[in-house]
Design a protein that fits this description.
326 residues; mainly beta; Jelly Rolls; 2 domains; globular
């Protein structure tokens, strides 16, 4: 198992009608001639969009192929027991120059009823936000299903949606069944269950170059929505210097933030899970038994569960998110 060390994967770029250029200009990923790059899928086990190892002795293997060979050594004993040969998380970067559709995702229970693999709970961490950038995070007041349907028909739904101004470093936990949308001028990383089921409720009457509007899923969404008012906006968290601090600690994933300007030794002996690093600022050198790896803003690396000790050397300072499953 000496082959199995920290893993970087080829990015997968997704053109979106609302996408922009920040994945290139801020995160330094060259997506070629694509005109509107809305998403970068950094780690994915979803069929048809499986991540492929970018370098090292396992170069060219997909994430799912690695799971079949290395099993619990890759993801951890308990994670493998639950998910087997399916990687449980999807890691993305999203760049919005226009509003994304107002949308919702089913939870696990409803997904099972509809023969979907699982629901979709996610979190957002804002990497960069233009002045006055905002997003939608649930309802501003509790409403009934009947009022919701009437407002959707009358196109007054925005009046009861919770509009939140955002800045760099804001984080949001988006439960399945919460109505939400990312607004223009926001670049963020999204950590989510490994599912790609989205029900679009409203798409701002937008059409593509051919005059076609995107499909909506109004009926499918109806039973997926939590109509209660959102009581919190961005997550309140601490960011102590040179020390990991919790942003989210939930059943689907735990996320820590680490801001550091001197060498950090990480020991994951007590953690039965893979760890994902998402670099949100600066750069550093990752040292492991397999060698050194240079990482900078926009890079994502997967530490297999058997990788228990690494060292991080900032150049000269960096911030990253640590993602794992307890």
């Amino acid at each position: 198992m000496e082959l199995l060390g920290p893993l970087k994967f080829h990015p997968q770029y997704k053109e979106k009608i609302w996408g922009g250029d920040k994945i290139r200009t801020v995160l330094h990923h060259d997506f070629g001639s694509m005109s509107n790059c809305g998403e970068l899928w950094a780690i994915s086990g979803i069929k048809g969009s499986e991540s492929e190892v970018a370098e090292g002795p396992l170069e060219g293997n997909t994430l799912n192929e690695l799971l079949e060979v290395f099993m619990a050594d890759l993801v951890g004993e308990k994670v493998y027991e639950e998910f087997e040969n399916e990687f449980p998380l999807l890691i993305k970067f999203i760049d919005a120059t226009e509003w994304l559709s107002i949308q919702v995702h089913p939870d696990d229970e409803l997904a099972q009823e509809r023969d979907l693999p699982r629901g979709k709970t996610e979190m957002w961490y804002v990497l960069q936000a233009d002045e006055k950038a905002a997003l939608i995070n649930g309802f501003s007041k509790s409403i009934s299903k009947e009022e919701y349907q009437q407002r959707l028909q009358e196109k007054t739904l925005q009046e009861v949606l919770n509009l939140v101004k955002v800045k760099q470093g804001d984080a949001f936990y988006i439960d399945a069944k919460k109505v939400h949308a990312i607004g223009p001028g926001i670049l963020l990383t999204e950590i989510q269950q490994s599912a790609d089921t989205t029900y679009r409720i409203y798409d701002w009457d937008r059409v593509d170059a051919q005059g076609n509007s995107r499909d909506l899923h109004v009926e499918l969404a109806l039973d997926s929505i939590n109509f209660e008012a959102e009581k919190t906006n961005s997550i309140s968290y601490k960011k102590p210097h040179n020390q990991s601090s919790t942003i989210v600690d939930q059943q689907y994933f735990s996320v820590q933030i680490l801001e550091f300007d001197h060498a950090i030794a990480k020991d994951y002996q007590d953690l039965d899970s893979f760890v994902i690093y998402i670099v949100t600022q600066g750069s550093f050198i990752l040292e492991s038994e397999q060698g050194n790896m240079d990482l900078g803003i926009g890079d994502v690396v997967l530490l297999p569960a058997i990788t228990k000790k690494v060292e991080l050397h900032p150049l000269p300072a960096s911030t990253l998110l640590e993602v794992y499953i307890k």
